[in-house]
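Shape matters. Shown next:

___
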Amino acid sequence: MECLKINSIRNIIGLHWNLKVKDISPESTSEEGDNPSEVPEETIGSIQCRIKGMDGLIFSLELTNQLNVLAKGQSRGSYQIIYAFAVVKDRAFLVKGSDNLKFLGSLKRDHLDSVEEVTFHCLVLVGTPVADSTSAMPDLADNNEVLPTEGQVCAYLEGIGYPDSKFDGEIPDFTVYKAKELISNEVTNSVLKVLAMEYLVKSVKAENVTDILKIAIDQDLKVLQKQCSEFLRECTILSVQNDNFSLSTESEYMLRRRSGWSPISSTDFSLYDSD
C-alpha cells in the first residue's frame, strides 16, 4: 500500500530589521587588533521572532560585531539565511550572499559612521519537522517556555504589511534594462530602487553609459551620476594619452549641462598628464 507522509514544512520569510547605529557600535576599539577577522565574533544585537498562527516557529536573528547576520532557533527546526543586505541611506551593502546580489559591495563598519539607523533585509528559510501522529508524546514544546534572553527584543509577526509598497524579499534577475525599468517606475518600492541603482553603478560600460547617465540625471541619483562622470573622465584621459582625443560625446554633454561645466578642450587635459 502506498503511503505519503509530510516530513517537514519549509517557510521562506522576508524580514526587515531596523537598528539604531548607536546600539550596535562599540564604545571603544578592540584591543585584539584592527583586523575584524582577529576579533572573536560576538552578538551585538538580537531579536526573537514568533510567527502568529504557526506553532513552534520561533527563531532569533542575531547581528555580530563582524556585521554578520545569523538565524538561530530550536533544535527541532532548521534555519538558514538565504541572503542579507543592509540599506544605509541611499546605498545597499551585502551582508550574506546570494547570486542575485553579487553586484553589491560588502558592508563595512565605516559605512555606518555618519548615519543614525541601518536596516537589514533578510530572507530566512525555516524548516519545521512535522510531529509524528503515531507518537504517544508530541515533540513540539510549549512555545511559552521559549523566552527571550536578557536584552533581547521579541517581535510577534503577523501577516504581510503593505505588500504594494514594501519590499517583499524577492530579488529580480537584474539586467541593465530591468534596473532602469524599476528605477523609472513610480510604484517601485524604495529598496528595489536602491538595489537597481547599485546594479547600474557596477554595470557602467562604454556601450551603455549614455543611457545610464540619462536615467541618473532624470532621477537625480547622485551616486550613479558620479560613477558615470568618473567613467567618462577615465575614458577621456585614456583617449588623450593615446592621441585619440575627440569632441564631447552625448554623455559628456549631458553631464556638463547638468553640472554647469563649460566645454573642455584637449589642452585642458594637460593637467592630468603632469601628475
User: Anything to note?
Assistant: The longest helix spans residues 222-241.
